[in-house]
From TrEMBL:
UniProt family annotation: Belongs to the protein N5-glutamine methyltransferase family. PrmC subfamily.
Known EC number: 2.1.1.297
Signal peptide bounds: none
Protein name, as recorded: Release factor glutamine methyltransferase
Organism: Tenuifilum thalassicum
Example GO molecular function: peptide chain release factor N(5)-glutamine methyltransferase activity
Chain residues that bind substrate: 190-193
Amino acid sequence: MEPVTLSDILKIISQKLEGVFNADEIQSLKKLIVESILDIPYHSVFLNPNDEVKPEKLKEFDRVLTDIIAGQPVQYAIGYTHFFDLKIKVNPSVLIPRPETEELVSLVVKENRTKTPTILDIGTGSGCIALALANTIPDSRVTGIDISDDALTLARENAELNGLNVSFIKSDIFNPLALNNLHFDIIVSNPPYVRESEKPLMKSNVLDHEPHLALFVPDEKPLIFYEAIVNFAFNHLNRDGQLYLEINEALGNEVSELLKSNGFNDVRILNDFRDRVRFAVAKSSN
């Protein structure tokens, strides 16, 4: 078998992905795949095009490309993504973080960077929100909760990977006994909010690979998680504590009314970078 060079790898990736992705997508995927498998900066490929690729790395390229062509999100195929300057491991037990969720973190950081808050992330998944906040608000004390053991294992791995101190606890927001005696300055959450009837609007690679438990809510109870979070926050936020939520763009008015009717002040419904309703912010009245 003839040796395969870095230059050859780029050609192989292009050939295998052609017809499945457009030219811009292929360029982005090439960079991501090469950097993740070879652990080198992408420009090294062009500086050293004749360097040989080891056989075990060729097998890894083949596996990743096969998975991507089959429809698996590239982040699952390579095993990680980047979020707020952190490397975050992901697998099908957790959602892949979206740009909108980076916006949610940015909002929390912008309004609390100079403080020393205690923060709770509800439904932490991979831990991306909790870890990003711990990294960017240095004197904060951050806790993340989730009902999934697999998600919590991954979140703890991500904390270790990024050298961050975050406490990850198994707890169900519908019965949060593990948090009974705890209070927080900030509560943040990106809970499930996609209604079952909205499934046809979603891409197949999301529906086929990402955890439905973290995505969907019944049409007849679209605010089921928000009701539990708001109830918890009312009893566990410190005086003037802040609640930050990512929400369904179609339910801004309903979330606003939920917050106001439960005694929260300074309720704000904010748009994301696509100018869609995406965030709710409110202050505790306690």
